[in-house]
Amino acid sequence: MSPGLSYTLVITGAPWSSQAPQTALAFAQELIAAGHHIDRVFLYGEGVHLASALSTPPSDEPDWPGQWADFLADNQTPGVACIASALRRGIVDQGEQARYELSANNLRQPYQIAGLGEWVEGNLKSDRVIYFHGSH
Amino acid sequence: MSPGLSYTLVITGAPWSSQAPQTALAFAQELIAAGHHIDRVFLYGEGVHLASALSTPPSDEPDWPGQWADFLADNQTPGVACIASALRRGIVDQGEQARYELSANNLRQPYQIAGLGEWVEGNLKSDRVIYFHGSH
Amino acid sequence: MTQEQTIQATLHILNKSPSHPRFATCLAALHEGDTLALAENAVLAVTDSTAGLPRNCVALGADLEARGLAGNPNVQIISYGDLVRLTAEHSRTVSW
Amino acid sequence: MTQEQTIQATLHILNKSPSHPRFATCLAALHEGDTLALAENAVLAVTDSTAGLPRNCVALGADLEARGLAGNPNVQIISYGDLVRLTAEHSRTVSW
Amino acid sequence: MTTLIVIDQAPYGSWSGREALDMVFSLAAFDQPAALLFIGAGVNWLRKSQDAGGIGQKTVEKNLAAAPVFGVEQILAEQSACERFRLGEGDRLNGVELIPSVRDALDRFERIVFAG
Amino acid sequence: MTTLIVIDQAPYGSWSGREALDMVFSLAAFDQPAALLFIGAGVNWLRKSQDAGGIGQKTVEKNLAAAPVFGVEQILAEQSACERFRLGEGDRLNGVELIPSVRDALDRFERIVFAG
After folding, report:
1. Is residue A1 part of a domain?
2. Looking at A24, A43, A82, A83, which residue is catalytic?
3. Could you give the C-alpha distances from F71 to A125, B33, C8, F94, in angstroms and in order?
4. The pTM of the whole model exceeds 0.80
5. Residues of F with CB below 8 A from A24's CB?
6. E13–A22: do the CB atoms touch at under 8 Å?
7. A:11-70 residues touching chain E, CB 8 A cutoff
8. Is the residue at B1 inside a domain?
9. DSSP readout, B53-88?
10. Which of A40, A83, A99, E14 is in the most buried spot, having the most CB atoms within 10 Å?
């Protein structure tokens, strides 16, 4: 076992339509606990819904978007939503709001919106790239 | 064949993760053309993403949320997103924004947010209730 | 529209790929006289050598064309308007 | 981490239900020495009488408990921390 | 006219089964007759001793056990799927009726709604 | 190190296959070696004469045909799936290599990514 590996995590399943964000969060917490480093969490496809600032589950249900955002902030881990996936699915930041003249923005802090190049960089530079897919 | 039936359409598949909104729209257009009446279009589960005002597909791709909203407005057809499904998935109107102190609202015009009672009423009063599910 | 002792002819709208478990369940649930309408990914069944389709089987033309299957002779092609007509003619429709 | 002639032992993380077509594809792709980690809906395989699981098979305890299967003796139970360790030990992981 | 809600998806992996249960309870709340049918991997919703705390979810077992109280007329399960997933009588929630074929079960109901 | 993208889902019913193609083209754009494998119902992406105008989508056939130009090294397809879906040589896009087993195909690549 190599201690201190670097990971990119890719989440393609949305909260509520899949268990992917939950499994990925438990995995990410244990990664940090084991002394590994997370280069970035990349949201792709349906996974971009995890970055919605407006998700408001009932108070007696788990709040995966909120828990994930707290984790990213606490660990200063970059969270990146793929721009193409996000725009289609209505996840936009202030810049996209201005560019497309939209009525609002809803990208949750601390996520950034960026291209697939972030994923390619993970492939090149991270020791591990682990995917968390939907259940279909 | 009975002319002039009343329909409730239920869409449970999201745009981009399923073909359901597209099939449902083609079906709805033909319903109107055949002289039938649509009592309501009810978005449930993943289907609520169709009501996002922020969905911004590339200009050379179909814009199902935009096309559906135009259809509803042109035909004065009520579009209803289930409140429980919508809140979890980050689709909120001004009222929910205020109630939960959210940073924005993103429910597309002319959709309304309401409870499953709207679906129950469709079961009771519409001649037909037709479902458009995701592909999983 | 009251429940009858004998179930009336039913329209089954199936949009799942032949690989999806719901596909086989649907085919096993059909009665003689029912109509099966293939939509979306389910139209792949017309070229699936393992799918035994019933006699009363129709498929949406737009979905066949998208998948390069419009020339397939195994099935009766319908339009979205035809699908509307089928739902009006059947008081019982199941969406799989 | 260069490509070797002989493929090294691989970790397969499978989260699909045994009814999902990807489940059978995964089981058919395993090599002797690979490890299969069942997660989410895939843990139902431990109680599926039609699923032939390989010897090197582990399953997430939290997912087994959720589905009432924590007492099932057919599989080695792992934690999320164990799953992290498995991904660190294997230079090749496939998420199904 | 009783509405039958059919759940064929495995529990906890997605929210669609829960949202189908919400439909059943909503019908019951409006005094509309409703029933549930579990088929395929969906029968695993009916297993006893579920504990979803470790995956951060609420267990649905109590909701299902309370279904008759809330007016859900019947809970049906596909027999062959119960056999496949080793869900014997002692493993299942009480009050579940096994049905030999999905086709026969569907025939009993005028209105059928699959989980999305 | 070549990355193999695996697509096992039927075309047009969801966007996941298209988004997997975007991954392949993105690798190629950054001069990273990439290959595609179609298995199960996914082999139907490779059929000729697709015309998705009637469902309001763009046809992917041209994107796939252009894949080699953009640097995608190989397009592989599962032989048994092609047989199942009657996708003979004349029905398929040119330049597709049939592979007898998914296991052997995966063995050729260090890095495997399934469509989401």
Report:
1. no
2. A82
3. 21, 48, 57, 16
4. yes
5. none
6. no
7. 16-19, 22-23, 26, 60-62, 64, 67
8. no
9. S-----TTS--HHHHHHHHHHHTT--EEEEHHHHHH
10. E14
Task: Find the length of chain E.
Answer: 116
E27: chain B residues, CB-CB within 8 Å: 120, 123
* DSSP-derived 3-state class of residue A98: helix
Partner-chain contact A135 D16, CB within 8 Å = yes
Q: What's the pLDDT at D63?
A: 98
- F16 to chain A: nearest residue by CA? A45
For chain F, 116 residues long, give each residue's pLDDT as a single digit of tens: 899 999 999 999 999 999 999 999 999 999 999 999 999 999 999 999 999 999 999 998 888 988 988 899 999 999 999 999 999 999 999 999 999 999 999 999 999 999 99
**pLDDT, chain E, mean:** 95
Q: Give the angle E5-E7-E12 at the CA atoms, nearest 5°.
A: 130
Model confidence pLDDT, tens digit, residues A59-69? 989 999 999 99
Among the partner-chain residues C25, C92, C94, the one whose CB lies closest to the CB of E39 is C25
> Which CATH number does the domain housing residue A74 bear?
3.40.1260.10
Cα of first residue to Cα of last residue in chain B, in angstroms, is 33
Q: Is the peptide bond before C54 cis (omega within 30 degrees of 0)?
A: no
CA-atom Rg of chain E in angstroms: 13
pLDDT score of C1 more than 70:
no
Say if CB C55 and CB C74 are below 8 A apart: no
Residue-number span of the structural domain to which A48 is assigned: 6-55+62-132
Residue-level pLDDT at A136: 80
The dihedral sign for the CA sequence A64, A65, A68, A74: negative
User: How many helices (DSSP H) and strands (DSSP E) are in chain B?
Assistant: 5, 5
User: For this structure, is A82 an active site residue?
Assistant: yes
Sequence letter at residue D78: I
Can you give the C-alpha Rg of chain B in angstroms? 14
Residue D91: beta bridge partners? Answer: none
F55 — contact with chain B (CB < 8 Å)? Answer: yes
B128 interfaces chain C, CB cutoff of 8 Å? yes
DSSP 8-class letter at F100: S
Residues 6 or more apart whose CB falls under 8 angstroms from that of E80 comprise E100
F40 burial level (CB within 10 Å; 0-12, 13-18, 19+): buried
Calculate what percentage of chain B has a pLDDT beyond 90.
Answer: 95
Is there a contact between D70 and E51 if contact means CB atoms under 8 Å apart? Answer: yes
Check CB contact under 8 Å for D81 and A34: yes
In this complex, do C88 and B26 lie within 8 Å of one another by their Cβ atoms?
no
Domain membership of residue B89 (yes or no) is yes
Set out the domains of chain C in order of their start, with CATH numbers.
10-95 (3.40.1260.10)
Q: What tokens appear for B105 in the block?
A: 């609202």
In a domain, A81, yes or no: yes
| Tokens 């048994």 sit on residue | F80
Question: How far apart are alpha carbons B1 and D49 in whole angstroms?
Answer: 48
Query: Does residue E72 contact residue E28 with C-beta atoms inside 8 Å?
Result: yes
CATH number for region F3-48+58-114: 3.40.1260.10
Task: Give the other-Cβ count within 10 Å of B91's Cβ.
Answer: 32
Contact assessment for residue B92 and residue F90, using Cβ atoms and an 8 Å cutoff: no
The number of domains in chain B is 1
Q: List CB contacts (< 8 A) between F17 and chain C.
A: none
Q: Name every chain A residue with its beta carbon within 8 A of the beta carbon of B52.
A: 89-90
The DSSP annotation for B83-106 comes to HHHHHHTT---HHHHHHTT-S---
Which residues 6+ apart lie within 8 Å of F96 measured at CB?
Answer: F38, F46, F75, F76, F77
B-chain CB neighbours of C13 within 8 Å are: 130
